[in-house]
Structure formats: C-alpha cells, structure tokens
Design a protein that fits this description.
281 residues, mainly alpha, two-stranded antiparallel ribbon, 11 helices
Amino acid sequence: MKQVTSSRRAVLHVAVTGVMTGLVMAFTFIGINIGSAYVNLGDAMVLTAAALFGPATAAIAGGLGAMFADLIVFPATFAFTLVIKAVEGAICGALIKYAVPKLARRHIPLQVALGIISMVFAAVVMAVGYFGTNVLFWGEGDSPATRLSGAVLQLPIDILQGVVGCVLAVLLTYVLRLDKIAARFNVGSVLVHAPLKSADSEQHLSNTAPAEKDGSAPESQSEAQENLDKTAPAKEDGSYPESQEAEVGGFEPESQEKAASKKRENNEEDGDKGGFLSKSS
C-alpha cells in the first residue's frame, strides 16, 4: 500500500480518535447490573484503542468517551472518570507501544504475554482510581468509615469490569488481529512480529551471498562453480577447460603426450619405409 502523507495521516488519526471515542461511550452503556453495581464494556474499547493506536489516541478516546457517558448517567463523577480512563488508556498504550517491543524482541509468546500483562495492569489502575472515587462519593453525608466500606464492596465489581474488558480487548487484538488492519491503513502498528531469520532463510542467504572482500566466493558458491567447470562444453578451439583436461578420453595429461609422441614416431617409420620401397623399385 502506498505511503500516506503526513497531513493525511494526521487526518486519519483524528478520525480514528473520534470513532474510538464514540465506541468507548457506546460500550459504556452496554453492561449488566450486579446488585447496586453496574459492569460495562467501556474498558474493552479503551484497552483496544491503546493496543491498536497508542497512548495518545487511547487517552483521548477513553477519557472523553467515558466522561460523556458519565455526564448522561452520573454527572457527579465525570471529572474523575475523565482522568481515570485517560490514565488507563495512556498506561496501556505506552507499555504496548514502547516497552513490549524492547522486552520481547520478536519472541511471539512473550509479545502476547507482555501485551496481556499491560492490559491487566492498566485495568488495575482503573479499579484503584475508582476505589478512591468511591471513598469520596459513596453515600452522601455518610461517615468516612461508611464510605470506605462501601468502596471496598465496590472494588470487586470494578476488578470484574476490568477483567471483562481485558478479555474482550485480547480477543480483538491478538485473536482477531485488528492490529493488522490498523497497520494497513497506517494508523497503527502490528503487535506480533515474527523472528527476522530462520534456519531456512539463513541457508538461502549463505547460498546467495556475494563474493568476499578478497575476491573469493563463499564455500557454497565455490562448490557450485567447480560443478559447472566439470560439465562445461569445450572451448571454440576444441580444447576443454583445465578442470576437464584430465578427464577427456579417460587419459591423464602425461599419457596423452606419450600417445601423441608414439603417433609421430609411427608416421616417421611409415615415411622411411615408403622411401626405401621407392628406391628399390
């Protein structure tokens, strides 16, 4: 695919950020009620945006998308939600984009494992952030001890929400491989990179390697050249290459010279006989 210009790439990033903001907001409204708690799927979109598009897009989409949802459902905590979701997306995106490639170094299982760990860590940060928010807002006019106990009761729900978000994000990024689509449109990068070299590729490279600095060819090329010399046709003057001279006719070079010398002696003897017969006649 042709490389896009910097201006077009910027437009694509703005468009992707807007789309992900809408998805975070929409998925925040998708969930189930567990007693007085509510488990939604908004974190799945925050973590997916972080893995696919990096920390900046995830921070903006996660913070704004969840904040808009809070403004509709529970406006009292919208500012806290803005900060918590933005930090969640930024941490996950930074770890996957910058830390994982350096630590994994194209080791595929390690790349996937570190990516999942990054998502889990970001989800834990989200749960801790909401734990602090619940301590402040749990029960209007209640004592600090009551608010703390209420926040403790809410903490497992937030952890469960983070786990569900991680599972969905892993399915979208590492199973369905949405990262390849993002990379194809130059708005993201591929998350899983295969090793650069394998045994077959190294063998192929050695067979096609250029000549050494001293002008000599690698061993594999030298062997191939020797085989070509042995099967090369005769030259224009009828002589064979040096490597074939010893093999033509099944004679060694010395035996060929002896045969030629003997032939010349026979020709001389025939000539002498012919002269003797002519004199006697």
